Amino acid sequence: MSRVRTGLEVLLANTSRLKGRRVGLLCHPSSVLPDLTHAVDALASAKDLNLAALFGPQHGIRGETQANMIEWGGFEDPRTGLPVYSLYGEVREPTAPMLDGLDVLLVDLQDVGARPYTYASTLALCMRACAKRGIEVMVLDRPNPIDGISLEGPVLDRAFISFVGLFPVPLRHGLTMGELARLYREGFGLECTLSVVGMEGWRRSMAFEETGLPSWVLPSPNMPTVDTAYVYPGMILLEGTNLSEGRGTTRPFEICGAPFLDSSETASRLNAAGLSGVRFRAMGFKPTFDKHAGVLCGGVQLHVMDRRTFRPVLTAVAVLQEARRQTGGAEAAFRWTAPPYEYEMTRLPIDILAGSEQLRGQVESLEPLTAVEEAWKDGIAQFEKLRRGILLYD
């Protein structure tokens, strides 16, 4: 089987476009070559390439931090001696001193195809900062691991812009990072000098395992497998509730529950809901950290049986509705969590994750899933038209 070549590989095969230019690199743990050499090491040793500064998003350039709102500070990279600037600490947009003297900022980040994954926001903020200073942004593209075709979920309302969503994009967007950058510029007017070093051999229908690339490298601590990425576009919504989304277990976002849920009833009712491509297994678990740490939770594990028909967002809505239905108005019951969340201090986390207040109301009223999905259709259709002009593959 032929193998996909990432943007990093394609660039390293011909670095002439960077000759004589001072280069910054935005990267994280998944920024690797097929032999697992990290992008920092590969670019630092590349002939005629002047790597001058490093930048890291949430969780750091090599996985320095764990969960949401755990900031990290800059440091000197011990391997190269280069300054490492944190874009998940005092600032999330690079400052003028951080960018001083750079001619181009390379961006090599593995995304997972979901709007709330904060690397997409970091990309946009870097584009904005570089535009102010005449610095080129060059995205080294990587696969969307859950395919580049499927779209699902509500499109963000601009009134709910936050660090988990800066532009009107659905929860599952079907784009690569390079395509997202083009969408930000061409579709949403984020002017900057932009180039994308595209992949070779990638097709939109591909799952990550079909790319021929080496085993999955965690792009964040709670994204341990490709299976996690498939459920994430929907199950991320649980971060806006008092349900455990499985942080502190070995299968985050696939396992969910709470001390007040009946695992057997939850699994039985969700399996009876007729959701495509998924089955639910009743289970108990004790998270080792985060929500309900050390407390026995009743819950379920999602087992995706057919990735092509699985609807992660609709599935997550069903999970939320079952928790709401099962606990009703009891004292120990399903609740929406309060801010702060990802630097948003006033709006409810569920609303900025979903992109409006509508989904919260649909859960509270136990609106039929068919009606919930129907409400997304117009937004998805408009987004589909917008993205057609920026696609790079197939």
Nutshell version of this structure?
The chain is α/β, with parallel strands linked by helices and 394 residues long. The chain folds into two domains: 7-221, Rossmann fold; 226-377, Aspartate Aminotransferase, domain 1 (Alpha-Beta Complex), CATH 3.90.1150. It is 28% helix and 15% strand.
Instruction: Give the termini distance in whole angstroms.
Output: 18 Å
Largest sheet, strands/sense/barrel: 7 strands, mixed
CATH architecture of the largest domain: 3-Layer(aba) Sandwich
- The percent of residues in helical segments reads 25-40%
In DSSP terms (H or I, runs of 4 or more residues), the helix count works out at 12
What's the overall geometry? globular
Task: Note down, in words, how this protein is organized.
By secondary structure, the chain is of the alpha/beta class. Helix content is 28%, strand content 15%. The protein has twelve helices and twelve strands. The strands form three sheets. A seven-stranded mixed β-sheet has the order 3-4-2-1-5-6-9, with helices on both faces.
Q: Which characteristics define this entry?
A:
7-stranded mixed β-sheet; Rossmann fold; Aspartate Aminotransferase, domain 1; 2 domains; 28% helix; alpha/beta
Topology record:
Elements: H1 7-13, E1 22-27, H2 39-44, E2 50-56, E3 75-76, E4 83-86, H3 96-99, E5 104-108, H4 119-133, E6 136-140, E7 152-155, E8 170-172, H5 177-187, E9 194-197, H6 226-235, E10 255-258, H7 263-271, E11 278-285, E12 297-304, H8 312-327, H9 349-354, H10 358-364, H11 369-374, H12 377-388
Parallel strand pairs: 1-2, 1-5, 2-4, 5-6, 6-9
Antiparallel strand pairs: 3-4, 7-8, 10-12, 11-12
Helix pairs in contact: 4-5, 6-8, 8-10
